[in-house]
Specification:
five-stranded antiparallel sheet; globular; 154 residues; alpha+beta; 4 helices
């Protein structure tokens, strides 16, 4: 019986590994338990700061431009791409817009590498298409509205 189960799992693993891994077309969003929204294609998107700001404001959230200290991890330039920083209910919201999904994925990996040894403020990370968003609030209200706003950009 155990041998049959292991054989079945091996077949599933092989089939999963053999399936197409990427296309040039837009794929659907997958929201996982850690509240990250991921898009896994190399397609360029036309999501701008203005579109993100509008989508967030349409959720009834008020963005206040923030002038944060240069040392703040959430406003660091990621290989030449600088974010716009805001306060949302007094908490930091950083929005990065990259030229492609691949660029966003590479820059996210750079951010994780840069901050691996830092003690960061608790935050949520949202990614969709070519955007990366950090929000330093754990409350469900604003985070669910942010998640909805970002998903609406798809």
């Amino acid at each position: 019986m155990t041998k049959n189960i292991l054989s079945f799992l091996f077949i599933i693993f092989v089939l999963g590994a053999c399936s197409p891994q990427g296309t040039d077309e837009k794929t659907s969003l997958d929201i996982n338990n850690s509240d990250k929204i991921f898009e896994t294609t190399g397609t360029a998107f036309n999501i701008t700061f203005e579109k993100i700001e509008t989508a967030i404001k349409e959720q009834g959230l008020e963005l206040v431009e923030a002038d944060l200290p240069r040392e703040n991890a959430f406003i660091q330039s990621l290989n030449g791409v600088s974010p716009k920083a805001y306060f949302l209910d007094g908490k930091t919201l950083s929005i990065y817009v990259f030229s492609t999904v691949d660029a966003r994925q590479k820059k996210m990996a750079d951010f994780e590498k840069k901050t691996a040894t830092m003690e960061l403020e608790t935050h949520k990370t949202y990614t969709s298409n070519n955007i990366l968003v950090f929000y330093t609030d754990e409350s469900d209200g604003n985070n669910s509205k942010l998640k909805f706003a970002i998903k609406a950009l798809d």
